[in-house]
Structure prediction request, 273 residues.
Amino acid sequence: MSAEGVKETIKEKYGQIALQVGSGSKGCCGSAPACGRDDPITANLYTAHETASLPTEAVVASLGCGNPTALAQLNPGETVLDLGSGGGIDVLLSAQRVGPTGKAYGLDMTEEMLALARENQRKTGVENVEFLQGEIEQIPLPDHSVDVIISNCVINLSGDKDRVLAEAFRVLKPGGRFAVSDVVVRGEVPASIRRHVELWIGCVAGALEEEEYRTKLAQVGFEEIDVEPTRMYHVDDARESLTQSGVDVDAIAPYVEGKFMSAFVRARKPSAV
Ligand SMILES: C[S@@+](CC[C@H](N)C(=O)[O-])C[C@H]1O[C@@H](n2cnc3c(N)ncnc32)[C@H](O)[C@@H]1O
Prediction:
């Protein structure tokens, strides 16, 4: 499938999820067996204290694999940009942290997700939030305009990660921080096995290998690069789904165990650029 075809498929999938959430059901990510239960990737990412202040639809629409705002340093008055903001959960949490003198932008390409996010903003009544329509490969903001870039399992979906990282670098102010959650693969995994696991992970497929991620960040100019695992995925989490797809789970276990993880990826744009 062409890069444009992949993008259209992603839009369609997330558009449907946004409509499901808007009509009161749970958005579904990944394989059918994981759906409707505690999905090991997307469940329990936020504290009760964090979710208490948010509309239910923002919490139900959460399809990330981490909690970037919990790990990112966000200061009052700063400008934050969330790449692939979905139903807006991390944008609304960031807006609380940067306060009324700061601003939180959400960027998403899926119209239905933007409508859901804007409705969630309306329900919370926050004014220092703006949801933008666009692609993370072509960020609709000027150079040097953002203090912190966050993202929650979206960069791994992009077919052009070099472009996304270059765009993140461009819009960050000198000294600005890149602080994202993403699915990362540790070490080599045979392509066929990777495909099976990615099918299970579903919403968050397309992960970069850890060293490749570091290299790509350094190539566009970032420094102080760090990849911190936040959740490891185990073959037993995927057993039911993989078995249903005809995969011999015990045979692939040694190639999968300890290889797939959610990670918090940090980097900094140099102060003098
Ligand atoms: C896995 S969901 C994550 C949503 C949100 N970050 C969260 O934690 O709930 C992916 C979101 O990214 C958006 N997205 C995927 N690829 C994108 C791209 N290339 N440009 C802009 N948005 C994109 C989708 O529309 C969807 O809303």
Remarks:
- Strands lie at 79-83, 103-108, 129-133, 146-152, 172-185, 208-209, 223-232, 260-268.
- The pocket of S-adenosylmethionine is lined by residues 10, 14, 62-64, 84-87, 89-90, 108-110, 113, 135-137, 152-154, 157-158, 203-204 (CB under 6 Å).
- The radius of gyration is 18 Å.
